[in-house]
Write a structure and sequence with these properties.
Elements lengths: L11 H16 L4 H12 L2 H17 L4 H7 L6 H16 L3 H13 L3 E2 L6 E4 L5 E4 L4 E6 L4 E13 L11 E5 L2 E5 L3 E6 L4 E7 L1 E5 L9 E4 L2 E5 L8 E2 L11 E8 H8 L6 E4 L7 E7 L3 H11 L2 E6 L4 E6 L1
Parallel strand pairs: 5-6, 15-18
Antiparallel strand pairs: 1-4, 2-3, 3-5, 4-5, 5-8, 6-7, 7-10, 8-9, 9-12, 10-11, 12-13, 14-16, 17-18
Helix pairs in contact: 1-3, 1-5, 4-5
Protein name: FecR family protein
Length: about 325
């Protein structure tokens, strides 16, 4: 999961405690001693009261726990799956009110897609025409080839596209769509990343023609090899040179060149299950280097060894906070 910021942040340990109590209450009725213990915990500090308020809000939104969490709640407390479920629950408490909506969006976007990847996974596909698609972490696409077109719909995440010539009697355009627009490959290799309100495009070879939805009175943009841009459904961003970091993920690396630590952690969090938070006090710390995305714990260790930061883990590393050393 990605890094989240909330208007009123609550200590991860307190959210962990609230998740534990919510899980215990969902498992069955508490006895009198346990209920007294819970009540004592709830009123012992304003922060714990706020955390429990979020737990109640979450429970009212869900009408109970999601099935994947409820099943884990039936396991023994020491069961690793239950601990992971608690981690997910604590994260949902942290990101309320968007947490449940985000949970449902990910489920609907990912699991109904033709092809998908989990967090931290990359996947290579060879399509019917010989074109190749590489899906980055937490990504989902649909593929539609018919007599008129070769279409990739990027639902979520990021892909690298290497097109092949079309062997069909009538050459069909190769198209990639996102919520923000449509890209037509002009014999090319390029990356596309779909964000909430914008799409990022980087062309490595050839060129890509980009159209906004319905035209919107905006002239289509040609992006040539060595150029990158981003666009919303209303307007194009500036054209800038492609740097080597744009496709480093295909080699299993995350590149940083004088990057803000907060921005780096936001990128790293895409490849790591759980929650990673950067203390605002070190958000502007500049870092450089090449870091592995297949072993995010190793990357966190490299940061701690190289820069004046501490990494504090909760829930067996499922929740990590970076703070000043």
């Amino acid at each position: 999961m990605s890094t989240y910021a909330t208007p009123t942040q609550i200590d991860p340990q307190v959210l962990d405690e609230a998740a534990e109590w919510l899980m215990r209450i969902s498992e069955g009725d508490l006895d009198d001693a346990e209920r007294a213990e819970w009540e004592c915990w709830r009123v012992s500090s304003p922060e714990r009261s706020r955390a429990w308020g979020r737990a109640q809000l979450l429970q009212s939104k869900l009408g109970g726990l999601p099935p994947s969490l409820a099943m884990s709640a039936l396991d023994r407390p020491s069961n690793p799956e239950r601990r992971m479920a608690l981690g997910k629950l604590a994260i949902m408490l942290a990101v309320l009110p968007a947490g449940w909506g985000s949970w449902k969006l990910v489920e609907s976007q990912q699991w109904s897609a033709d092809y998908r990847t989990a967090v931290g996974q990359q996947r290579e596909l060879t399509l019917a025409d010989g074109s190749r698609i590489t899906l980055n972490t937490d990504s989902a696409i649909d593929v539609l080839f018919d007599a008129r077109q070769r279409l990739i719909n990027l639902r979520e995440g990021e892909i690298l596209v290497q097109t092949a010539p079309d062997a069909a009697p009538q050459s069909r355009p190769f198209l990639v769509t996102t919520r923000q627009g449509r890209m037509q490959a002009l014999g090319t290799r390029f990356t596309v990343r779909e964000l909430q309100t914008r799409t990022q495009l980087a062309v490595l070879d050839g060129a890509v023609r980009v159209e906004l939805p319905g035209g919107n009175g905006v002239t289509p943009l040609i992006v040539n090899a060595g150029q990158r841009t981003d666009f919303s459904s209303q307007a194009f961003g500036l054209l800038n040179p492609v740097d080597r970091s744009v496709s480093a993920w295909t080699q299993g690396m995350l590149m940083a060149d004088n990057m803000r630590l907060a921005d780096f952690i936001a990128e790293l969090a895409r490849y790591r299950k759980g929650f990673v938070r950067c203390d605002p006090a070190i958000a502007d710390l500049r870092i450089s280097g090449a870091f592995p995305i297949s072993d995010t714990q190793r990357t966190l260790n490299m940061l701690v060894q190289t820069y004046p930061v501490l990494a504090t883990g909760h829930l067996s590393g499922y929740w990590v906070t970076l703070s000043p050393a």
